[in-house]
Amino acid sequence: MKYVLVVPVLILTVYLLTNLYVPFAFKGNMIFIVDTLLWATIIPATLFISKLTQKRIWQTDKTLIQLATIIAIFQVFLTIFMAFFMGFGKNANIWTPTALTIYFPYLFIPFLATEISRAHLTQTMSKHKPTLMLLLISLFYTLIIPTMPNYLNLTSPLAIAEFLIRTFIPTLAISLLATYFAYLGGFPANLLYMAIPTFFTWFSPILPNIQWQTQSILTVTATAIGFIVLDAAVKPLPTKRIRRTLKKQKSQLPYWTAIALIGLIAVWSSTGLLGFTPTIIASGSMQPMLNPGDIALIINAPPATIKMGDIIQYHTAEEPIIHRVIDKYEAQGSLWFITQGDANNAPDDPVSERQITGKAIFTIPKLGWVSIYVKTAFTEIISFLINNITTAFATLSILLVASVFGVHRYRNQPLRKLRRRLGR
């Protein structure tokens, strides 16, 4: 017990140094390097103390590893799914050789130190009053993670309210689930759960670009569902029926992986990274060739290769338009195109080659109506939740807390029975 406070004190010291001392004592890339070195000290110290106190933070269960992977993929997928209706944006991280050398260790080492120390503290401090200790550990890591904003900036009630809804509550929800995975499955389980969405955020060339209110609701929803999944998987007694259920759950991982890959391909195609972009036809200006609800596949095409009769997509100040080219000419050193919808009576304004995004090569009839209906439904739901965000968060928080205590109750029931038997 004499080593219990060593790791949290070390973490708190590093946190204070990296936030209050390093930014003022160093400049430029030295800030990243010193921060990385300070967080790196936590890793060997935690491993040494774990070995000294005989804490098996590496011991885990395959079922929990698979559950952590599935829940993490689902969390990413849920955000990606919503981004289909709200849009994507380019990742701000540009991984040049210099960035990989300096900036990646600055991100990765604190992340690794956090998860290793989380597993150690969970295994060390959760023997007595585990529910309370798991909550305190989750709260500790929520408050001191390296990405948490400066608390000194929270100077008004509005800023505090936005911080709680935008950052604190979603981060605490994720921390709770990660800590519980560390409690049940050791370091490998909580590492997988945290690493998958983290690495997606770091390395995906495009990321969901959705409102922070929506992102907060999705995060809390995904973690609440994660606890419910654990509630269904972690049962008090290892009966044959439960073992059969767990075997069935193990076989679901390849399907979830396939779904994630399909979702990733769909995201990349929607942003043009695969060389084509699916576009839903919203109007009847190109009937009968293209009808509302059809999906047109747009490929990147150099303006010089576009001929009269081709169907092209170009951007205006209001929205993208898909019309047929009826004429082209060169003026002022650039190509210009005259387009017209097949069902329209008059041509459009001249289109510059800089406005063109590509030309249509293939059409999938009516499939776009699914997206239109789903988008309308989700837009209405999210609009309602954002307009009633306090009620939404209260409901989700109650669901999350109920799930946490439900999982904990089931998990600890055999242990309490065993203790009563041993007491006799």
Explain what the structure shows.
This protein is 62% helix and 12% strand. It is an alpha+beta fold and 424 residues long. The protein has two domains: 6-272 and 388-423, no CATH class; 281-368, Ribbon (Umud Fragment, subunit A). The strands form two sheets. A seven-stranded antiparallel β-sheet has the order 3-4-9-5-6-7-8, covered by helices on one side. It has a two-stranded antiparallel ribbon with strand order 1-2. The relative contact order is 0.10. Residues 236-243 and 413-424 have low confidence and may be disordered.
List the helices and strands and how they pair.
Blueprint: H1 6-25, H2 29-40, H3 42-52, H4 62-86, E1 88-90, H5 97-125, H6 130-144, H7 157-203, E2 206-208, H8 212-233, H9 240-250, H10 253-270, E3 276-280, E4 295-299, E5 311-315, E6 320-331, E7 334-340, E8 351-352, E9 356-364, H11 368-387, H12 389-423
Which keywords apply here?
424 residues, alpha+beta, Umud Fragment, subunit A, seven-stranded antiparallel sheet, two-stranded antiparallel ribbon, 12 helices, 9 strands, elongated
- Sequence stretches where pLDDT stays below 50 over 5 or more residues: 236-243, 413-424
How do the strands line up in the largest sheet?
3-4-9-5-6-7-8
| Separation of the first and last Cα atoms | 27 Å
Q: What percentage of residues falls in helices of 4 or more residues?
A: 55-70%
State the domain count: 2
Query: What percent of residues are in strands?
Result: 5-15%
Mean pLDDT: 77
Shape: elongated
What Rg, in angstroms, do the CA atoms define?
27 Å
SSE arrangement, N to C: HHHHEHHHEHHHEEEEEEEHH
Overall structural class, as computed from helix and strand content, comes to: alpha+beta
Largest sheet: 7 strands, antiparallel
Number of strands: 9
Tally of contiguous helical segments:
12
Subunit organisation of the chains: single chain
